[in-house]
Structure formats: C-alpha cells, structure tokens
Amino acid sequence: MSITFRPINAAVGFAAEVTGIDLRQPLDRNGFLPIRDGLDEYGVLVFHGQDLDEEGQIAFSRHFGELEISIRRHRPRAVAHDEISDITNVAPDGSIYPLDSEHMSYNLGNQLWHADSSFKKIPAIASLLHARDVPPLGGATEFADQRAAWDGLTAETQARIDGMVGLHSLAHSRAAMGYDAKEKFLAAETAEVPPVPQALVQTNPRTGRRALYAGAHVSGIIGLDKPESDALLAELRDQATQTHLQYHHDWQAGDLVIWDDRATLHRGRPWDNSYRRVMRRTTVAGDGPTA
Ligand code: OGA
Ligand code: MN
Fold it and tell me: Separation of 28 CA from ligand 1 center, angstroms?
C-alpha cells in the first residue's frame, strides 16, 4: 500500500482525500511524516473506512503531539477516555438527547464557524473527528481555508490586522447560540476557560503560511473600541467563509477527518434529531500561547 493524496477543492489547494493507509496499523516516524506534511499542505485530510476504537484513535492522534482533555469530562458521557470528546446526540443510556437538553444546546455552538479550543490559553493545532454512526441526511461538516482567506485580503487590510490580538471565550460563542454558560457551566468548567488572547493571524512554523484566526469564540479585538472591533470582525468573517474557500464533508461511518485548527474554520450542519449521530473527536494541543 502506498499513501496517496487527492486534492478536493483543487482551485484553492484545500482538503485532500487520503488513500492507501490503515490507521489501525502502527506507524513509525517515516510513515507519519507524509501525513503531517499533507495536513500542512491541504489543511484538511479525509480518510474513509477507518475502523478505529477509542484507543486506536488516541494512539494515531498522538503522532501529532500531546492530546487535550475534554472540558466536558466531568459530565456523564458515553466515552471511556478523557482525551475523547463525544460529539453526539446519544446519551450514555442509548437514548437520544432532546434538542432542548443542556447537552444539545451546548453542542449547537458547533454550528458556528470556529477553530477548536481557541478559547484555551494554548489552543489546539489539530482535531481528528471519527464518524461512528451518521444520519441518512444532513449532519455534514463544512471547512473553510483561512490561509486562502488571508491571501485574499488587500495588502492594506493585511498590514492593518497583522499583530492584532483577539479575545476568545467559550461563554461568548455559546451565548451566541442561546446557551447560558453562567447558569449551565459546572464550576470546574468556568474555572478552566476564562477569556484568553490569541493572535488574529497565525503562521504555520513549517511552511510559513499565514492564516486568519477569527472564528466564533472571538468576542472582540483587544485595543479597539466595540463598534470598530465588531465592524472589523464582521468584515473578516465574511472574507473567511466565502464559498469558494470551502470544503463540504458529507459523512459516512468510518470516516476520519483531520483538520489544522490554526489554518481552517469549520462548522457542523443540522440534521433530523430523531436519527443518531455519533462522532468521536481527539484534539491535539499546541505547544504555547499565540499572543
Ligand atoms: C467538532 C465540531 C462539528 C460536527 O467536533 O469540533 O465542531 O459537524 N463538530 O460535528
Ligand atoms: Mn469544532
């Protein structure tokens, strides 16, 4: 078997389908490097037919670096490992969570364009999402290339925003979808995610490519007054989510999709909640704050 990358959004050089690898098999450094380089190049990698359990997903994910632990680990969950986020509408007892439950109303925030864990002091560099059970229709995930978004800004706007710092907060993005974090977060969760600063423009240390970093967790830009900050963020988000920068992923069970959280934004799409949707995410921690 030899590993092959097929670009999907070829016009932008964004997202690639990867074939010729079984992610359950042990990988040495030489086997892993093409995958890391592929992620640097394409921003999103799609693997089909990967029969991974929690341990297998964790073992493969660790090639990218240390894994984050889920901030929802204090809740009753259907997963065994703190390194797994269970992105699902299925409760531990097998029933489907109602749409107005705390669990579903928290998860609704995933439907806004965002980068995972940008609300943590040290934000994620990559996420790996594995589909276990998918609805027959809907429930896609969309990705947008933030390197191409940066490249498309005028030189004037690039010069203006280079060096700016955004304030990121999980409570902010959850509030935008009607979730009251003050009321619903556990004390340990509130303590874990106070608002944090992050550079508005990220740079990949290996390729030097720059990328916009202004997803839904950003509540404002430090040093600008609110009207100016809101106007700039609205302009940047329009730029960031243009359809030609996107990749739309319709899931099949067994898909593993990896994305670079410093180079892309993503959002989940709705589906009919009478169908089960069970996804497992591992998240690779960065090695330092970005601002
Ligand atoms: C995530 C996420 C969206 C989806 O797992 O980080 O945003 O479609 N998921 O489940
Ligand atoms: Mn996400």
Answer: 29
**Ligand 1 center–CA 89 separation, angstroms:** 12
Ranges of beta strands (E only) in 48-207 are 85-88, 124-133, 141-145, 165-168, 196-199, 201-203
- In the numeric block, the tokens 């330092």 are attached to 288
Ligand 1 pocket mutation pick from 137, 279, 280, 282 by most atoms within 8 angstroms of CB: 279
Per-residue pLDDT of the chain (291 residues; tens, 9 = 90+): 699 999 999 999 999 999 999 999 999 999 999 999 999 999 999 999 999 999 999 999 999 999 999 999 999 999 999 999 999 999 999 999 999 999 999 999 999 999 999 999 999 999 999 999 999 999 999 999 999 999 999 999 999 999 999 999 999 999 999 999 999 999 999 999 999 999 999 999 999 999 999 999 999 999 999 999 999 999 999 999 999 999 999 999 999 999 999 999 999 999 999 999 999 999 999 999 999
Which structural domains are found in the chain, ordered by start?
4-285 (3.60.130.10)
Nearest CA to ligand 1 atom 3: 268
CA distance 116 to 143: 12
Angle at 83 between CA 65 and CA 77, to 5 degrees: 165
Ligand 1: does its nearest atom lie under 6 Å from the Cβ of 281? yes
Q: Is 279 in the pocket of ligand 1 (CB under 6 A)?
A: yes
